[in-house]
Amino acid sequence: IQMTQSPSTLSASVGDRVTITCRASQSITSSLAWYQQKLGNAPKLLIYRESTLESGVPSRFSGSGSGTEFSLTISSLQPDDFATYYCQQYHIFSTFGQGTKVEIK
Amino acid sequence: EVHLVESGGGLVQPGRSLRLSCITSGITSGDDAMSWVRQAPGRGLEWVGFIRNKAYGGTTDYAASVRGRFTISRDESKSIAYLQMNSLKADDTAVYYCTRCRDSTCYYVSWGQGTLVTVSS
To answer: Does residue B30 have a pLDDT over 80?
Structure first.
């Protein structure tokens, strides 16, 4: 299963609402997770099962979609949110999207 | 609190072997599937393979890029997972992360800090 993530880079300001999309090459039902990775650190799980927020993750993060189209939304971008985000399907083994770097505008 | 600590990375020549270890603490070994994920310098994340939990027989599966060369195993008595890497290639150069799945479902709830493997002559 291939995962196509877009955009590859996103320039935004603090307070902006941002959305990252991920498309699967075939249906993965709701077996979709999102991760945040900051430079030099391991990724951190944000969302699993397409829309379930991992414990401790701020509520400004949300996920939606099903089947082949998914999105991660940050409702009001905070300084701590500038990072790279990856989607991952775990319906059949595992595949990651290419990543989206969220940078300061 | 769950901790995963990888070790064993380093510089290795093409064609040689290397074994990575992942010591886990704060969890009951064998209850959760474990996976290895790698990240080449400046690149994205790539799933390497995983070992299922005890309930699913502890079987393994691998990405096509490493199948036949890499082997994942675990010693539940020591709470250690291993990644045996044989016939290494330059393309295997990456930071290797040990990850813990939630039960048998492999999204990654815990990550180690990663260990760098460099394959070069």
So the answer is: no
